Amino acid sequence: MRLITLALAVLLLLIQYPLWLGKGGWLRVRELEGQLNVAQEKNAALKSRNAKLESEVRDLKDGTGAVEERARYELSMLKQNEIFVQILGKDQPKPQSSGTPAPAAAPATPVPAAPSAMRPKS
């Protein structure tokens, strides 16, 4: 009787080995699920980025508003008869001067700011 019990216990352990440590075992499944979650998060971030880029391309193809906004923000371009006003907060440093005072008649080079900070001249 003792020999049969020992043989059954050994067979039980041999059957359990592939379930826990084999190719398709529980540990491998848990590891693959973790990799799947990481890949799904990365895909979601890339889909979001692609959607933003697609909408930007559509805006640039369809309207002139996006082109004008980019020219204003990135290239500091202004329309004719338009003045540039930049409001600095208390915690923002003042713009550095070049060291030599500019002539009074020459306007200063505009610093890029949000498009909402630009107002047409009245």
Could you explain how this protein is built, in words?
The protein has three helices and two strands; from the N terminus they run αααββ. Mean pLDDT is 77; it is low at 100-108. It has a domain at 26-78. The chain has helices at 2-21, 26-62, 65-75, and strands at residues 82-83, 119-120. It is mostly helical and 122 residues long. A two-stranded antiparallel ribbon has the order 1-2. The termini are far apart.
pLDDT averaged over residues: 77
Instruction: Tell me the total number of β-strands.
Output: 2
Q: SSE order, as H and E?
A: HHHEE
> How many helical stretches?
3
Write down the Rg.
33 Å
Structural class: mainly alpha
Per the principal axes of the C-alpha atoms, what is the gross shape?
rod-shaped
Beta fraction: under 5%
Uncertain spans, ≥5 residues at pLDDT below 50? 100-108
Spatial strand order of the main sheet: 1-2
Query: What can be said about the biggest beta sheet?
Result: 2 strands, antiparallel
What's the helical proportion of residues? 55-70%
Distance between the termini: 105 Å
Protein name: Cell division protein FtsB
Membrane topology: Single-pass type II membrane protein
Periplasmic side: 22-122
Coiled coil: 29-63
